[in-house]
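Hi V.,

You were right to ask for the full record rather than a summary. Here it is.
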Amino acid sequence: MSRFIPTFILSLVLLISSVFSESQAQSWTSLNSYNGDSRHHPITFSDDRYGFVMAGNNSFGEYLDDVHRYDSQTNTWEQLADFPGGPRGFSYAVSDEQFAYVGFGSYGSEFPTDWWRYEFANNEWTALANFPSGGRNHPALILVDDKIYMGLGSNSMGNLGDWWQYDITTDSWTEKAEFENGNRHHPYYFGIDGIAYVGFGHGNTINGNINVYNDFYKYDASNDSWITLNEFSGEGRVAGTQFSLNGKGYILSGDGDNHGPLDSGEFWEYTPETDSWTSLESHPGGARWALGSFVINCDVYLTSGLNRSAEMYFNDLMKYQTDLVCGCNDSTAVNYNPDADINDGSCTYCESNLLTLVISGEDAPEGLAWNIVAIEDDYPSATGGAQSTNICLEYNCYVFEMYNNSNEGWNGNNYEIIDNLGNIIASGTHQIGATNVDTIEIGEMECYVESYRCNGLQACIDPMDGSGEYSSLSECESNCIIPTQIDNFSNAFTISPNPSTGLINIRFDNETNQTKLSVINMLGKLVYKQESLTKGTNTIDLSSESEGIYFIKISSNNNTITKKISINR
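Predicted structure:
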Protein backbone atom coordinates (compact mmCIF):
# COMPACT_ATOMS: atom_id res chain seq x y z
CA MET A 1 0.00 0.00 0.00
CA SER A 2 1.48 3.32 -1.05
CA ARG A 3 1.85 6.19 1.43
CA PHE A 4 2.66 9.85 1.03
CA ILE A 5 5.54 11.47 2.88
CA PRO A 6 4.42 14.58 4.78
CA THR A 7 5.68 17.74 3.11
CA PHE A 8 7.49 19.02 6.15
CA ILE A 9 9.43 15.73 6.56
CA LEU A 10 10.37 15.75 2.89
CA SER A 11 11.55 19.36 3.15
CA LEU A 12 13.62 18.49 6.19
CA VAL A 13 15.23 15.59 4.36
CA LEU A 14 16.07 17.82 1.40
CA LEU A 15 17.50 20.49 3.73
CA ILE A 16 19.67 17.97 5.56
CA SER A 17 20.88 16.52 2.26
CA SER A 18 21.74 20.00 0.99
CA VAL A 19 23.69 20.91 4.13
CA PHE A 20 25.71 17.74 4.11
CA SER A 21 26.38 17.83 0.38
CA GLU A 22 27.98 21.24 0.83
CA SER A 23 29.97 20.42 3.94
CA GLN A 24 31.23 16.96 3.02
CA ALA A 25 33.88 16.15 0.47
CA GLN A 26 32.68 15.75 -3.10
CA SER A 27 33.10 11.96 -3.25
CA TRP A 28 29.44 11.56 -2.22
CA THR A 29 26.75 13.17 -4.38
CA SER A 30 22.96 13.15 -4.11
CA LEU A 31 20.92 11.78 -7.02
CA ASN A 32 17.21 11.47 -7.76
CA SER A 33 15.07 9.58 -5.25
CA TYR A 34 12.78 6.76 -6.31
CA ASN A 35 9.03 7.44 -6.31
CA GLY A 36 8.02 4.92 -3.70
CA ASP A 37 7.69 4.43 0.05
CA SER A 38 10.74 5.20 2.13
CA ARG A 39 11.89 1.92 3.66
CA HIS A 40 14.40 -0.11 5.61
CA HIS A 41 15.74 -3.53 4.63
CA PRO A 42 15.27 -3.05 0.87
CA ILE A 43 16.43 -5.72 -1.58
CA THR A 44 19.09 -4.13 -3.81
CA PHE A 45 21.06 -5.38 -6.81
CA SER A 46 22.42 -4.14 -10.14
CA ASP A 47 23.94 -4.90 -13.54
CA ASP A 48 26.31 -2.64 -15.52
CA ARG A 49 23.67 0.06 -16.11
CA TYR A 50 20.65 -0.38 -13.84
CA GLY A 51 20.26 -0.48 -10.07
CA PHE A 52 17.21 -1.99 -8.36
CA VAL A 53 15.41 -1.27 -5.09
CA MET A 54 12.50 -3.48 -4.06
CA ALA A 55 10.46 -4.85 -1.14
CA GLY A 56 11.41 -4.03 2.46
CA ASN A 57 9.37 -2.37 5.20
CA ASN A 58 8.00 1.17 5.25
CA SER A 59 7.52 3.54 8.18
CA PHE A 60 4.04 2.12 8.82
CA GLY A 61 5.42 -1.38 9.33
CA GLU A 62 3.95 -2.61 6.04
CA TYR A 63 5.73 -5.23 3.96
CA LEU A 64 6.34 -4.07 0.37
CA ASP A 65 6.66 -5.86 -2.97
CA ASP A 66 7.22 -2.94 -5.35
CA VAL A 67 10.24 -2.86 -7.71
CA HIS A 68 12.06 0.32 -8.77
CA ARG A 69 14.78 0.45 -11.45
CA TYR A 70 17.40 3.21 -11.60
CA ASP A 71 19.07 4.16 -14.90
CA SER A 72 22.60 5.33 -14.09
CA GLN A 73 23.00 6.93 -17.53
CA THR A 74 20.01 9.24 -17.21
CA ASN A 75 19.62 9.53 -13.40
CA THR A 76 15.98 8.44 -13.65
CA TRP A 77 13.78 5.84 -11.96
CA GLU A 78 11.09 3.57 -13.39
CA GLN A 79 8.67 1.44 -11.39
CA LEU A 80 8.39 -2.11 -12.75
CA ALA A 81 5.86 -4.84 -12.06
CA ASP A 82 5.67 -6.01 -8.45
CA PHE A 83 7.86 -8.84 -7.21
CA PRO A 84 6.00 -12.12 -7.95
CA GLY A 85 7.17 -13.64 -4.67
CA GLY A 86 4.95 -11.21 -2.78
CA PRO A 87 5.66 -8.66 -0.03
CA ARG A 88 8.56 -9.27 2.34
CA GLY A 89 11.20 -7.66 4.48
CA PHE A 90 14.66 -8.62 5.72
CA SER A 91 15.46 -10.34 2.41
CA TYR A 92 18.50 -10.04 0.14
CA ALA A 93 19.78 -10.55 -3.40
CA VAL A 94 22.98 -11.16 -5.35
CA SER A 95 23.56 -10.49 -9.05
CA ASP A 96 25.94 -11.00 -11.94
CA GLU A 97 25.89 -9.45 -15.43
CA GLN A 98 22.79 -11.39 -16.54
CA PHE A 99 20.75 -12.39 -13.50
CA ALA A 100 19.82 -11.49 -9.95
CA TYR A 101 18.88 -14.11 -7.36
CA VAL A 102 16.40 -13.19 -4.61
CA GLY A 103 14.94 -14.98 -1.62
CA PHE A 104 14.47 -15.48 2.13
CA GLY A 105 13.23 -12.77 4.50
CA SER A 106 9.83 -12.81 6.16
CA TYR A 107 6.23 -11.67 5.90
CA GLY A 108 4.83 -11.26 9.40
CA SER A 109 5.46 -14.58 11.15
CA GLU A 110 6.08 -16.41 7.87
CA PHE A 111 9.60 -17.25 6.66
CA PRO A 112 9.31 -18.14 2.95
CA THR A 113 11.73 -20.58 1.32
CA ASP A 114 11.04 -19.59 -2.28
CA TRP A 115 13.98 -18.69 -4.53
CA TRP A 116 13.78 -16.46 -7.60
CA ARG A 117 15.88 -15.44 -10.58
CA TYR A 118 15.48 -12.11 -12.34
CA GLU A 119 16.75 -11.72 -15.93
CA PHE A 120 17.91 -8.17 -16.66
CA ALA A 121 17.62 -8.35 -20.46
CA ASN A 122 13.89 -9.09 -20.60
CA ASN A 123 12.67 -7.99 -17.15
CA GLU A 124 11.48 -11.52 -16.34
CA TRP A 125 11.18 -13.46 -13.07
CA THR A 126 11.61 -17.26 -12.84
CA ALA A 127 10.89 -19.43 -9.81
CA LEU A 128 13.80 -21.75 -8.95
CA ALA A 129 14.22 -24.67 -6.57
CA ASN A 130 12.95 -23.82 -3.08
CA PHE A 131 15.43 -23.75 -0.23
CA PRO A 132 15.14 -27.22 1.44
CA SER A 133 15.53 -26.11 5.06
CA GLY A 134 14.20 -23.34 7.30
CA GLY A 135 13.55 -19.87 5.96
CA ARG A 136 15.06 -16.88 7.74
CA ASN A 137 15.63 -13.18 8.09
CA HIS A 138 18.98 -11.45 7.64
CA PRO A 139 21.14 -14.24 6.16
CA ALA A 140 24.52 -13.83 4.49
CA LEU A 141 24.13 -14.21 0.71
CA ILE A 142 27.30 -14.31 -1.38
CA LEU A 143 27.87 -14.95 -5.09
CA VAL A 144 31.14 -16.75 -5.88
CA ASP A 145 31.57 -17.74 -9.53
CA ASP A 146 28.70 -20.15 -10.33
CA LYS A 147 27.87 -20.78 -6.66
CA ILE A 148 25.83 -18.81 -4.14
CA TYR A 149 26.55 -19.27 -0.44
CA MET A 150 23.82 -18.64 2.11
CA GLY A 151 23.76 -19.06 5.85
CA LEU A 152 23.34 -17.60 9.33
CA GLY A 153 20.31 -15.35 9.89
CA SER A 154 17.41 -15.84 12.29
CA ASN A 155 13.85 -17.15 12.42
CA SER A 156 11.33 -18.22 15.07
CA MET A 157 13.95 -20.67 16.42
CA GLY A 158 16.48 -17.88 17.09
CA ASN A 159 19.87 -17.15 15.57
CA LEU A 160 21.24 -19.67 13.07
CA GLY A 161 24.69 -20.91 12.09
CA ASP A 162 24.06 -23.30 9.17
CA TRP A 163 25.79 -22.81 5.81
CA TRP A 164 24.52 -23.77 2.34
CA GLN A 165 25.69 -23.77 -1.24
CA TYR A 166 23.39 -23.14 -4.21
CA ASP A 167 24.68 -24.39 -7.57
CA ILE A 168 23.45 -22.05 -10.31
CA THR A 169 24.13 -24.55 -13.10
CA THR A 170 22.11 -27.38 -11.50
CA ASP A 171 19.54 -25.32 -9.56
CA SER A 172 20.26 -27.32 -6.40
CA TRP A 173 21.07 -26.71 -2.71
CA THR A 174 23.73 -28.52 -0.64
CA GLU A 175 24.40 -28.09 3.08
CA LYS A 176 28.04 -27.36 3.96
CA ALA A 177 30.16 -27.08 7.11
CA GLU A 178 28.38 -25.18 9.86
CA PHE A 179 29.62 -21.78 10.93
CA GLU A 180 30.88 -22.60 14.45
CA ASN A 181 31.87 -19.11 15.60
CA GLY A 182 28.59 -18.01 17.11
CA ASN A 183 25.10 -18.09 15.60
CA ARG A 184 24.09 -14.63 14.40
CA HIS A 185 21.92 -12.61 12.07
CA HIS A 186 22.45 -9.52 9.93
CA PRO A 187 26.20 -10.05 9.40
CA TYR A 188 28.35 -8.22 6.91
CA TYR A 189 29.57 -10.31 3.97
CA PHE A 190 31.02 -10.20 0.44
CA GLY A 191 32.83 -12.32 -2.13
CA ILE A 192 36.35 -11.53 -3.39
CA ASP A 193 38.21 -13.51 -6.05
CA GLY A 194 36.25 -16.71 -5.52
CA ILE A 195 36.22 -16.58 -1.70
CA ALA A 196 33.28 -15.85 0.62
CA TYR A 197 33.90 -13.58 3.63
CA VAL A 198 31.52 -13.28 6.63
CA GLY A 199 31.65 -11.51 10.00
CA PHE A 200 30.15 -9.02 12.45
CA GLY A 201 26.40 -9.25 13.08
CA HIS A 202 24.01 -9.71 15.99
CA GLY A 203 24.62 -12.73 18.24
CA ASN A 204 22.69 -14.13 21.17
CA THR A 205 22.11 -11.88 24.18
CA ILE A 206 24.62 -12.55 26.98
CA ASN A 207 23.77 -11.54 30.57
CA GLY A 208 21.16 -9.11 29.29
CA ASN A 209 23.61 -7.46 26.91
CA ILE A 210 23.16 -7.54 23.15
CA ASN A 211 26.16 -9.29 21.61
CA VAL A 212 27.34 -7.47 18.49
CA TYR A 213 30.42 -9.04 16.92
CA ASN A 214 33.57 -7.49 15.40
CA ASP A 215 35.14 -10.79 14.25
CA PHE A 216 35.70 -11.85 10.65
CA TYR A 217 36.11 -15.15 8.72
CA LYS A 218 36.49 -16.63 5.28
CA TYR A 219 35.07 -19.85 3.93
CA ASP A 220 37.46 -22.27 2.18
CA ALA A 221 35.28 -24.07 -0.34
CA SER A 222 38.10 -26.43 -1.37
CA ASN A 223 37.98 -28.29 1.97
CA ASP A 224 34.66 -27.02 3.30
CA SER A 225 36.13 -25.23 6.31
CA TRP A 226 36.24 -21.84 8.01
CA ILE A 227 39.38 -19.72 8.56
CA THR A 228 39.58 -17.08 11.28
CA LEU A 229 40.84 -13.65 10.17
CA ASN A 230 41.94 -10.59 12.14
CA GLU A 231 39.30 -8.95 14.27
CA PHE A 232 38.04 -5.58 13.15
CA SER A 233 39.79 -2.83 15.13
CA GLY A 234 36.69 -0.68 15.59
CA GLU A 235 33.51 -1.40 17.48
CA GLY A 236 31.30 -4.32 16.50
CA ARG A 237 28.57 -3.60 14.04
CA VAL A 238 25.37 -4.93 12.57
CA ALA A 239 22.57 -4.06 10.14
CA GLY A 240 24.54 -2.15 7.54
CA THR A 241 25.27 -2.90 3.90
CA GLN A 242 28.23 -4.30 1.99
CA PHE A 243 29.70 -5.01 -1.45
CA SER A 244 32.93 -5.93 -3.19
CA LEU A 245 34.73 -4.06 -5.94
CA ASN A 246 38.02 -4.59 -7.77
CA GLY A 247 39.42 -7.21 -5.42
CA LYS A 248 38.43 -5.55 -2.16
CA GLY A 249 35.47 -5.74 0.23
CA TYR A 250 33.51 -2.88 1.76
CA ILE A 251 31.15 -2.38 4.72
CA LEU A 252 29.01 0.72 5.08
CA SER A 253 26.95 2.27 7.92
CA GLY A 254 24.74 0.30 10.34
CA ASP A 255 24.63 0.06 14.15
CA GLY A 256 27.59 -0.35 16.50
CA ASP A 257 28.16 -1.94 19.91
CA ASN A 258 25.01 -2.95 21.80
CA HIS A 259 23.03 -2.25 18.59
CA GLY A 260 23.21 1.51 19.03
CA PRO A 261 23.64 3.89 16.06
CA LEU A 262 27.19 4.59 14.92
CA ASP A 263 28.41 8.16 15.29
CA SER A 264 28.54 8.48 11.48
CA GLY A 265 27.87 6.49 8.34
CA GLU A 266 31.22 4.71 8.58
CA PHE A 267 32.74 3.32 5.40
CA TRP A 268 35.51 0.69 5.57
CA GLU A 269 37.61 -1.09 2.96
CA TYR A 270 38.96 -4.62 3.45
CA THR A 271 42.17 -5.78 1.68
CA PRO A 272 42.45 -9.59 1.62
CA GLU A 273 46.18 -9.67 0.84
CA THR A 274 47.02 -7.97 4.14
CA ASP A 275 43.88 -8.99 6.08
CA SER A 276 43.44 -5.36 7.08
CA TRP A 277 40.81 -2.60 7.16
CA THR A 278 41.08 1.02 6.02
CA SER A 279 38.64 3.77 6.97
CA LEU A 280 37.11 5.78 4.10
CA GLU A 281 34.93 8.88 4.01
CA SER A 282 31.65 8.42 5.88
CA HIS A 283 28.50 8.96 3.90
CA PRO A 284 26.58 12.21 4.59
CA GLY A 285 23.67 12.55 6.97
CA GLY A 286 24.52 10.19 9.81
CA ALA A 287 24.55 6.41 10.16
CA ARG A 288 21.66 4.39 8.76
CA TRP A 289 20.18 1.13 9.95
CA ALA A 290 19.21 -1.50 7.37
CA LEU A 291 20.06 0.48 4.25
CA GLY A 292 20.80 -0.87 0.78
CA SER A 293 23.58 -0.50 -1.78
CA PHE A 294 24.59 -1.56 -5.25
CA VAL A 295 27.57 -1.10 -7.57
CA ILE A 296 27.41 0.00 -11.21
CA ASN A 297 30.76 -0.18 -12.99
CA CYS A 298 33.11 1.94 -10.84
CA ASP A 299 30.54 3.75 -8.73
CA VAL A 300 28.88 2.83 -5.44
CA TYR A 301 25.25 3.70 -4.70
CA LEU A 302 23.59 3.97 -1.27
CA THR A 303 19.85 4.05 -0.76
CA SER A 304 17.01 3.79 1.74
CA GLY A 305 17.37 2.76 5.39
CA LEU A 306 16.46 4.38 8.69
CA ASN A 307 18.33 7.02 10.68
CA ARG A 308 17.35 5.70 14.10
CA SER A 309 18.60 8.78 15.96
CA ALA A 310 16.20 11.01 14.02
CA GLU A 311 13.60 8.28 13.24
CA MET A 312 13.86 9.28 9.59
CA TYR A 313 13.21 6.86 6.73
CA PHE A 314 14.74 7.37 3.29
CA ASN A 315 13.94 6.73 -0.37
CA ASP A 316 16.94 8.70 -1.62
CA LEU A 317 20.02 7.73 -3.64
CA MET A 318 23.64 8.79 -3.10
CA LYS A 319 26.65 7.95 -5.23
CA TYR A 320 30.24 7.46 -4.15
CA GLN A 321 32.56 8.02 -7.08
CA THR A 322 35.71 5.97 -6.73
CA ASP A 323 39.07 6.78 -8.34
CA LEU A 324 38.89 3.60 -10.42
CA VAL A 325 38.68 3.66 -14.23
CA CYS A 326 35.98 1.52 -15.80
CA GLY A 327 36.16 0.49 -19.41
CA CYS A 328 37.15 -2.33 -21.73
CA ASN A 329 40.37 -3.98 -20.52
CA ASP A 330 40.56 -6.63 -23.25
CA SER A 331 43.35 -5.75 -25.70
CA THR A 332 41.65 -7.72 -28.49
CA ALA A 333 38.55 -5.46 -28.46
CA VAL A 334 38.13 -2.49 -30.78
CA ASN A 335 37.52 -0.17 -27.80
CA TYR A 336 40.35 -1.40 -25.56
CA ASN A 337 41.31 1.03 -22.79
CA PRO A 338 44.75 0.23 -21.33
CA ASP A 339 43.99 2.44 -18.29
CA ALA A 340 40.86 0.53 -17.26
CA ASP A 341 40.95 -1.00 -13.77
CA ILE A 342 37.60 -2.77 -14.20
CA ASN A 343 35.99 -4.29 -17.24
CA ASP A 344 32.56 -2.63 -17.43
CA GLY A 345 31.22 -4.98 -20.08
CA SER A 346 31.56 -2.45 -22.90
CA CYS A 347 34.12 -4.41 -24.94
CA THR A 348 33.23 -4.44 -28.63
CA TYR A 349 34.39 -7.18 -30.95
CA CYS A 350 33.74 -6.77 -34.63
CA GLU A 351 34.73 -9.05 -37.49
CA SER A 352 32.67 -7.06 -39.98
CA ASN A 353 30.69 -3.82 -40.13
CA LEU A 354 33.19 -1.91 -38.01
CA LEU A 355 32.11 1.73 -37.93
CA THR A 356 33.66 4.94 -36.68
CA LEU A 357 31.67 7.48 -34.68
CA VAL A 358 33.15 10.99 -34.89
CA ILE A 359 32.03 13.54 -32.29
CA SER A 360 32.80 17.21 -32.97
CA GLY A 361 31.67 20.62 -31.79
CA GLU A 362 32.76 23.47 -29.58
CA ASP A 363 34.31 22.55 -26.27
CA ALA A 364 32.54 19.21 -25.79
CA PRO A 365 32.47 18.74 -22.00
CA GLU A 366 33.44 15.62 -20.09
CA GLY A 367 29.77 15.16 -19.25
CA LEU A 368 28.77 14.65 -22.87
CA ALA A 369 27.32 11.19 -23.42
CA TRP A 370 25.57 9.25 -26.16
CA ASN A 371 23.69 5.99 -26.65
CA ILE A 372 22.86 4.00 -29.75
CA VAL A 373 19.85 1.77 -29.09
CA ALA A 374 18.15 -0.62 -31.52
CA ILE A 375 14.48 0.36 -31.74
CA GLU A 376 13.26 -3.03 -30.52
CA ASP A 377 15.77 -3.19 -27.62
CA ASP A 378 15.92 -1.66 -24.14
CA TYR A 379 19.70 -1.86 -23.75
CA PRO A 380 22.15 0.26 -25.75
CA SER A 381 24.14 -1.40 -28.52
CA ALA A 382 26.89 1.18 -28.03
CA THR A 383 27.62 3.99 -25.56
CA GLY A 384 30.31 6.64 -25.21
CA GLY A 385 31.24 10.19 -24.40
CA ALA A 386 32.88 13.20 -26.02
CA GLN A 387 35.63 11.19 -27.72
CA SER A 388 35.35 9.67 -31.20
CA THR A 389 35.46 5.89 -31.15
CA ASN A 390 35.00 2.67 -33.09
CA ILE A 391 31.63 0.93 -32.83
CA CYS A 392 30.20 -2.30 -34.18
CA LEU A 393 26.53 -2.40 -35.18
CA GLU A 394 24.38 -5.02 -36.84
CA TYR A 395 22.13 -3.93 -39.70
CA ASN A 396 19.09 -2.46 -37.96
CA CYS A 397 17.12 0.66 -37.12
CA TYR A 398 18.65 2.58 -34.21
CA VAL A 399 17.98 5.62 -32.09
CA PHE A 400 20.99 7.88 -31.53
CA GLU A 401 20.66 10.07 -28.44
CA MET A 402 23.13 12.63 -27.17
CA TYR A 403 22.85 14.32 -23.81
CA ASN A 404 24.87 16.04 -21.11
CA ASN A 405 24.82 14.06 -17.88
CA SER A 406 26.43 16.85 -15.86
CA ASN A 407 23.84 19.45 -16.88
CA GLU A 408 26.46 21.92 -18.06
CA GLY A 409 25.06 22.45 -21.56
CA TRP A 410 27.19 22.69 -24.66
CA ASN A 411 27.46 24.78 -27.79
CA GLY A 412 26.00 22.20 -30.12
CA ASN A 413 27.69 18.97 -31.16
CA ASN A 414 27.88 17.06 -34.40
CA TYR A 415 28.19 13.36 -35.02
CA GLU A 416 29.07 11.28 -38.06
CA ILE A 417 28.98 7.50 -38.42
CA ILE A 418 31.49 6.39 -41.06
CA ASP A 419 31.83 2.91 -42.58
CA ASN A 420 35.12 1.14 -43.36
CA LEU A 421 35.12 2.62 -46.88
CA GLY A 422 34.98 6.17 -45.58
CA ASN A 423 31.29 6.74 -46.42
CA ILE A 424 29.20 8.81 -44.02
CA ILE A 425 26.13 6.65 -43.40
CA ALA A 426 24.52 8.78 -40.67
CA SER A 427 25.06 12.27 -39.27
CA GLY A 428 23.37 14.97 -37.27
CA THR A 429 23.73 18.17 -35.27
CA HIS A 430 22.42 18.35 -31.74
CA GLN A 431 21.25 21.56 -30.23
CA ILE A 432 22.60 23.66 -27.40
CA GLY A 433 21.90 22.36 -23.90
CA ALA A 434 19.28 19.84 -24.95
CA THR A 435 18.77 16.10 -25.28
CA ASN A 436 18.43 15.17 -28.94
CA VAL A 437 17.29 11.93 -30.51
CA ASP A 438 17.80 10.85 -34.13
CA THR A 439 16.59 7.74 -35.92
CA ILE A 440 19.43 6.20 -37.94
CA GLU A 441 19.49 3.33 -40.44
CA ILE A 442 22.42 0.90 -40.58
CA GLY A 443 22.33 -1.26 -43.70
CA GLU A 444 19.36 -1.69 -46.02
CA MET A 445 16.78 -0.74 -43.42
CA GLU A 446 13.63 1.35 -43.62
CA CYS A 447 13.05 3.06 -40.30
CA TYR A 448 9.86 4.90 -39.53
CA VAL A 449 10.38 8.68 -39.32
CA GLU A 450 7.46 10.83 -38.23
CA SER A 451 6.76 13.59 -40.75
CA TYR A 452 3.75 15.38 -42.20
CA ARG A 453 2.58 17.01 -45.42
CA CYS A 454 -0.56 18.67 -46.72
CA ASN A 455 -2.80 16.40 -48.75
CA GLY A 456 -4.22 19.26 -50.81
CA LEU A 457 -7.58 19.10 -49.08
CA GLN A 458 -6.74 21.18 -46.02
CA ALA A 459 -5.68 18.09 -44.08
CA CYS A 460 -2.33 16.75 -42.80
CA ILE A 461 -1.14 13.20 -43.36
CA ASP A 462 1.95 11.23 -42.37
CA PRO A 463 3.29 9.44 -45.50
CA MET A 464 5.08 6.97 -43.12
CA ASP A 465 8.31 7.20 -45.13
CA GLY A 466 9.81 10.41 -43.76
CA SER A 467 9.06 12.37 -46.95
CA GLY A 468 6.81 14.96 -45.34
CA GLU A 469 7.81 18.62 -45.50
CA TYR A 470 6.84 19.35 -41.87
CA SER A 471 8.55 17.83 -38.84
CA SER A 472 5.55 18.14 -36.51
CA LEU A 473 1.79 17.85 -36.79
CA SER A 474 1.23 21.28 -35.28
CA GLU A 475 3.52 22.89 -37.87
CA CYS A 476 1.62 21.16 -40.65
CA GLU A 477 -1.77 22.08 -39.23
CA SER A 478 -0.83 25.74 -38.93
CA ASN A 479 -0.05 25.81 -42.65
CA CYS A 480 -2.69 23.47 -44.05
CA ILE A 481 -5.83 23.11 -41.99
CA ILE A 482 -8.73 25.42 -41.23
CA PRO A 483 -8.79 25.45 -37.40
CA THR A 484 -12.54 24.83 -37.06
CA GLN A 485 -12.31 21.83 -39.34
CA ILE A 486 -9.61 20.05 -37.30
CA ASP A 487 -11.32 21.03 -34.04
CA ASN A 488 -14.60 19.45 -35.11
CA PHE A 489 -12.83 16.28 -36.16
CA SER A 490 -10.76 16.14 -32.99
CA ASN A 491 -13.78 16.67 -30.75
CA ALA A 492 -15.53 13.72 -32.35
CA PHE A 493 -13.09 11.36 -30.61
CA THR A 494 -12.60 10.57 -26.92
CA ILE A 495 -9.76 8.38 -25.62
CA SER A 496 -9.91 6.81 -22.18
CA PRO A 497 -8.56 6.01 -19.71
CA ASN A 498 -5.51 8.22 -19.84
CA PRO A 499 -3.18 7.17 -18.31
CA SER A 500 -3.96 3.55 -19.15
CA THR A 501 -2.62 0.14 -18.15
CA GLY A 502 -2.77 -0.94 -21.80
CA LEU A 503 -6.47 -1.38 -22.70
CA ILE A 504 -7.57 1.84 -24.39
CA ASN A 505 -11.11 2.80 -25.38
CA ILE A 506 -11.54 5.07 -28.41
CA ARG A 507 -15.06 6.40 -28.91
CA PHE A 508 -16.07 8.00 -32.21
CA ASP A 509 -19.43 9.81 -32.28
CA ASN A 510 -19.78 10.44 -36.04
CA GLU A 511 -20.55 8.23 -38.99
CA THR A 512 -17.48 7.91 -41.16
CA ASN A 513 -15.74 5.89 -43.79
CA GLN A 514 -12.11 4.89 -44.08
CA THR A 515 -11.17 5.81 -40.51
CA LYS A 516 -7.69 4.43 -39.73
CA LEU A 517 -5.69 4.29 -36.50
CA SER A 518 -1.98 3.88 -35.76
CA VAL A 519 0.00 4.01 -32.50
CA ILE A 520 3.61 5.20 -32.41
CA ASN A 521 6.03 5.08 -29.47
CA MET A 522 8.51 7.76 -28.36
CA LEU A 523 11.22 6.23 -30.55
CA GLY A 524 9.12 6.71 -33.67
CA LYS A 525 8.30 3.00 -34.03
CA LEU A 526 4.87 1.93 -35.25
CA VAL A 527 3.57 -0.49 -32.56
CA TYR A 528 -0.10 -0.87 -33.54
CA LYS A 529 -2.24 -0.34 -36.65
CA GLN A 530 -5.97 -0.72 -37.31
CA GLU A 531 -7.46 -0.18 -40.76
CA SER A 532 -10.94 0.85 -39.65
CA LEU A 533 -12.81 2.28 -36.68
CA THR A 534 -16.57 2.07 -36.20
CA LYS A 535 -19.01 4.53 -34.66
CA GLY A 536 -19.17 3.94 -30.91
CA THR A 537 -16.47 2.47 -28.66
CA ASN A 538 -13.42 0.72 -30.14
CA THR A 539 -10.97 -1.00 -27.76
CA ILE A 540 -7.30 -1.52 -28.59
CA ASP A 541 -4.87 -3.62 -26.55
CA LEU A 542 -1.38 -2.22 -25.86
CA SER A 543 -0.79 -4.26 -22.70
CA SER A 544 2.24 -5.96 -24.29
CA GLU A 545 3.98 -2.61 -24.76
CA SER A 546 6.26 -1.10 -22.14
CA GLU A 547 5.32 1.85 -19.95
CA GLY A 548 5.75 5.32 -21.46
CA ILE A 549 4.28 7.94 -23.77
CA TYR A 550 2.56 6.92 -27.03
CA PHE A 551 0.90 8.86 -29.86
CA ILE A 552 -2.44 7.71 -31.24
CA LYS A 553 -2.99 8.92 -34.82
CA ILE A 554 -6.49 8.80 -36.31
CA SER A 555 -7.14 9.57 -40.01
CA SER A 556 -10.50 9.85 -41.72
CA ASN A 557 -11.22 11.20 -45.18
CA ASN A 558 -9.44 14.55 -45.30
CA ASN A 559 -8.55 14.90 -41.62
CA THR A 560 -5.83 13.57 -39.30
CA ILE A 561 -5.47 14.07 -35.54
CA THR A 562 -2.81 12.90 -33.10
CA LYS A 563 -3.40 12.49 -29.36
CA LYS A 564 -0.90 11.60 -26.65
CA ILE A 565 -1.52 8.83 -24.13
CA SER A 566 0.50 7.48 -21.22
CA ILE A 567 0.78 3.78 -20.28
CA ASN A 568 1.45 3.24 -16.57
CA ARG A 569 1.15 0.03 -14.52
